[in-house]
Hints:
Shape: globular
Protein name: Tetratricopeptide repeat protein
InterPro entries: NLR-like, TPR-like_helical_dom_sf
Low-confidence stretches: 1-18, 20-24, 26-51, 216-220, 293-299, 798-814
Amino acid sequence: MLVGVALVMAIVSTVAGRDPSFWASVVAAVAGTIAGMLAESPGAAPSEPAARPGADDLYRDDAGRLPVVRELADAVALGVHPAAVPRAGGGQVPPFVRRDLSGTIERAIGESGFVLIVGDSTAGKSRAAYEAVHACLPGHRLVYPLNRAAFPAAVRAAGRERCALLWLDDLERYVDADEFTAQTFRVLLSRRRGAVRIVATLRARERAAFSPQCDNAVQGGAEIRRKVREVLALAHEVHLPRRWSAEEVRQAAESRDERLSTASAHAGRFGVAEYLASGPRLYQDWQDALSGSGVPVRPGVGGPRAAALVAAAVDARRAGYHAPLPLPVLRRLHEHYLATIGGPSVRPEPWERALEWATEPLYGTSSLLMPGDGAQEDEQEAYLAFDYLPDAVDAGTHPSPIPRGTWDILVEHGEPRDCLGIGRSAFDRGLYEVAEAAFRKGWTVANLDAAAELANCLGWTGRHRAALDVLEAAADLAEVLPGADPDRLRSLELDMAFWMAVNGDGVGALPLVRRLTEEIAALRGEHDPQALFARVGLSRCLGLTGRGQDALLLARDTAATARSVLGEAHEVTASAVFEVAVATARLGDFAGALELWRAALDERIRLDGPDSQWHIDYYWAIADMLGECGDPHAAKAAAERAVELAGRYVAPGHTRHWSTQCCLARWTALAGDPEAGLGLADGLLTEATRMHGFRHPETLQCRHVRAQIMYELGRFLQACLEWERLIEDARAVAAAEAELLLDCRAEVARCMYRLGAHTQAVARLRAVIVDYALIFGPQNRGTASWTRKLAALSGEPGDASAATASPPARLDHR
């Protein structure tokens, strides 16, 4: 144990030296972990660890026990939306109308240990699940965590019971818990058959947010999403439609319960369950309050302050904050919304009246603001928006942006773990500064998920070295922190290998990814998705280190295996197929790579539809290949499509914003309009410099493309001087063997040749080709491309092996 403590302290010391202003908070978090380690060591005085607020908030009966399913009588307490109480009397929920998929759900509960019901808000997911467990699991003991902090206690309780039902209504509430991992669910499900059943619900919008499409192009929250997908892969998913079938509507219409018969009359426009929960009417009441903000408040009608209060709570949920908000925070948040609709000029009602209207159940059902479940840390009242409202806003034609002040207050107020959801939502909306701040706050408590997300945020905004620093620190901590998930460590190390490769260090990444590939295959089997994904990374590193043929063979084999085992639609299959094209292009077979990328894009369009963030990289790669194959006009058209998609799915500051814009500027110039291309490059460079400064990696890439276009315009001296300055600046942020440095050195040689220094230019270009071949191999795309250009300049044979026959040049030779 003392050795472990010493290791943690050594790691903390190293980490703290990297960025004292930020890492001090991480040091404090790890110090708490060390204290816990010491307290648990033999001979130490026993101590009761401080429980997080709500850590034992499990649903219990009046006697304080975990109830048996057959004893459950309060569906609303388990997440079912209440309906209006009829004039003739009745309960909070009407009689159950058996759904067309009820039999499917019941069979899934009987056959599968883990059932997930997915559907829109107010589709009737919780009610269908509630009735199904009554039918299938009457003797199981219900374990229902009322908040995220209680999830670990729920897992322990479910593991202790002879027969337990782990009820996870609104699954998205729990995904940021440390214990929410595939391994946790596997352990529960591995108990004797039927001992633990897991039934969960998830809103369709949240399910879509965990799809692979939200990773490939955007990368915000990719680590959490992959973790959640590993959990979801264990579940039998049933998708429950919001709109009811004709048979379901018929049953509702024939019901003696007036609520059902009334709802069935509106089935042409709304789902029956949706109408029962009063979702559309509540939304309209809120909109009426917003639009009528200048009208004096009348009894039963929401005023401007109430409308602003609800708007603040709705935007908090849209921003990824799914916990109830303490009333003081809501009051602070609502001031901006009130000012937006007129402030004092609209004569806002008193705070107490606004709160009363927003929290009062309307139509006898739900309220616009719902009281929070479970204990609050400071015993304050806390509320969250009715879940129908944020979905309705985002489903609108032009959903309003969330004000920056709202994001800042949420990050400031949120507990570190709450900030993971905020960071993911901010990144997806292109607010990279907010995302970074949220993930940094999450990482202050040594949360490994937050570290992975922070690294992704840094990396995809061009700060590769900073991303590696975070990942290295997180991996070091994961090795020694008690209870750390081994899968999490391997995932961190895979990310490290990825960013090392992106940063130009394929040599350093190769042994790491090779070890991980072997470890994962040995532990989880060669056909496990993570094992196959590691093989994709290994192929990339082989290509970066000059073993192009090996990279291509591995990528082909991995793609074939993934297709066979995982199917065409799986994210790992898509990554492997993409890598086959990458490896083909690295070997200089541009026509072959073009054919592969076109076929892969056609398949993605078939699976995803015509517009998807997945497609950005495909169009960008196709543009590059078309240009290399001698068709710059078609390359420009493909680049325009890549820019269009990037503008839709990422924001300025994201790597794909810069790369697609640079691609378009380059091929615009080469398609015969260099002045227009230079204009695009100038604007892009101005934007990058304003956002990031002159030496940021993305700015360097913009400068490189601009110099290329100046060369095409015949401004050889200007281009040469720009590339010389670029080399000086690039060395401050990238490894000397990075492709950008090599390309800049080669471009300087080309300029020198055009300026008349033929002998020096040829010698310099041959030295670059030597370095390219030593680092990336003689068949690498860069090696082959510059060898051809050398032949065009000097009349020498276009053979990379001949170019490398000279004495090796130093890697930093210019």
